[in-house]
Amino acid sequence: MPDKNFNFLPQPVPLKEQHWADDTIQYVSISCTTYNHESYIKDAIDGFLMQKTTFPVKIVVFEDCSTDGTKAILEDYEKKYPQLFAMFYQPVNTYKKPFRRKAKQIKNKERDKAKYIALCEGDDYWTDPLKLQKQVEFLEEHPDFMVTSSGYIKKNRDFEEEDIRANDPSFVNETDRGFEFDLFSKGWLTKTLTSLFRNDQSVLGSIPAYKYARDVHLFYHLLKSGKGYYFKEIFGVYNIHEGGIFSTIPQLKKDTDHYFIFRELYEINKDEFSRRKYFRCLIRYLNHAIETPNKT
User: Fold this and answer.
1) Per-residue model confidence as pLDDT tens digits over 24-48
2) What is the average pLDDT across 142-149?
3) In Å, how far are 156, 223, 248 from 229, measured between CA atoms?
4) Angle of CA points 154, 158, 163, to nearest 5°
5) If you classify domain 13-240 with CATH, what class do you get?
6) Strands 145-156 and 227-240, bridge-based pairing
7) Among candidates 103, 34, 98, 88, which has minimal Cα distance to 66?
8) Please, where in the chain does CATH 3.90.550.10 lie?
9) What share of the chain is helix, strand, coil (3-state, %, to 5)?
10) Do the beta carbons of residue 121 and residue 202 sit within 8 Å?
């Protein structure tokens, strides 16, 4: 990753109002994957564009051949703000296809130009215009930290339900808000839509080794390499809806997937965390296999 080739602005400025030289390297990459999010993608993109920062940002979008109006909406934004977007429109849907990893690697070459990476799926969105600024400032001042996250609001769009998930369990130190790997198994502190982390390729380079790579692998390796910091503020909204990739998967399918995910994590790393997770998932998997043998 190249060093920065710009000077920080004196005060945070909305991304839409920033002006950088054409060869400026983004300091933060926003990584967004989207598929059939026509009803949500505007909220996601507007949440990116309202960010106020002192550094350049690139919005890197992986559009997975949506069959609704998602692509057209993205194209409109790209035409209006071409300097802010790097769009990767897939000619065919890649979900669970063998060529998905290669397609993602092409997108990640652009994403990985940045010093920091922020994640947000196309059906979620950010609510704090200083989210990126707060997270980057913290990591700039604390080199021993690898990742930051925060609270969020969980919305069930189908039933019009809303739940504030401050993600603030008692085991996070109230004073310094830091957490380390040993807390990883006690609760999920790194919600994808609120997370921003260092682009350390010695860490991220571990992910492609996994056949069943998921978010848990990313945060597992980040927290193995440094500490995490939890902001008490609400940074965004996590939407549950009928078209959500994960939020509406049947529990049986989730438990089966978790078995394969944590079996592989344990086989590669052989540590106590992965052993415990693998054992628990194995028990659930075997219970389902006994109860519903034709479905596993």
Assistant:
1) 999 999 999 999 999 999 999 999 9
2) 94
3) 27, 10, 29
4) 20
5) alpha beta
6) parallel
7) 34
8) 13-240
9) 40, 20, 40
10) no
